[in-house]
Every structure is written in structure tokens, then in C-alpha cells.
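Researcher: Let's continue the batch. This sequence belongs to Flagellar basal-body rod protein FlgC, and it's 139 residues. Same format as the previous ones, please.
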Amino acid sequence: MDALSATLKVAASGLTAQSERLRIVSENLANAQSTGSTPGSDPYQRKTVIFSAELDRSVGASTVNVASVDRDRSAFPVEYLPGHEAADEAGYVKMPNVNVLVEMADMTEANRSYEANLQVVKQARDLISMTIDLMRGQS
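Model: Same format as before. Here are the C-alpha cells for Flagellar basal-body rod protein FlgC:
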């Protein structure tokens, strides 16, 4: 496989991985206030994305993929909300372990990584088009 095709495959794997990361961040943000529905029940648990690099022998380069989507095992913060449906006997409700600022930072980073991979795809596509144009001119 030629270098430009390999470049496209590597960038495409980055686009796919960052898309999954953005989906998980969006899910975390959407559930940042999702508590349990019964007294003392656990709320939404933050998800995290684990990436892995994998050698793609067909292109001779490492690609990235989502190895797994795990649950954040950090403690749930509690809030005193005695009238809430998920409040325990003392009036405390377990809240999701989602920090909106952390999620926004993750979203920004994933978005920038996605855009960088998209630029690589555009540049490779332009180089392929220029190569085809040069080859047409030689005939």
C-alpha cells in the first residue's frame, strides 16, 4: 500500500476513535444530573474511553482504536436533597460522578484531534488529486 493510502487509513482510524470519544463525552454531559430513582440507588456512572494503538500490517503503520469504554470508579458526590425521590433516610442523594468542566475539556480535546485528523485526510486527498493530474499530463 502506498504512503498516501496508509496516511488516509491512519487518519480515518483517528476520526473514528475521536467520534466515539465525543459520543461518550456527550452521554456523560447529558446525564450529569441523572440520579437514581429509588432511595439510596446509584446515579449515572461516568464513562471513559480507553484507546489502543494497533499495528495494521496492511499499511505498515499504527492505527488507533477504542479498546474499551469503561466506568469511572470514583466516588459519587452526595447532596442534601430531602424531598428527592432518590434521597436516603438521612435526605442525601448520590449524584453522578460527572464533572462538567472535565467533560468540556475532554470535548475540546477530542474536537481538536478530530479536526487535525480531518485536515490530514483533506491534505492526502489533495496530494492524490495532484498526483493524478500530473500523471494525466504525462500521457
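Researcher: Any comment?
Model: The longest strand covers residues 61-71.
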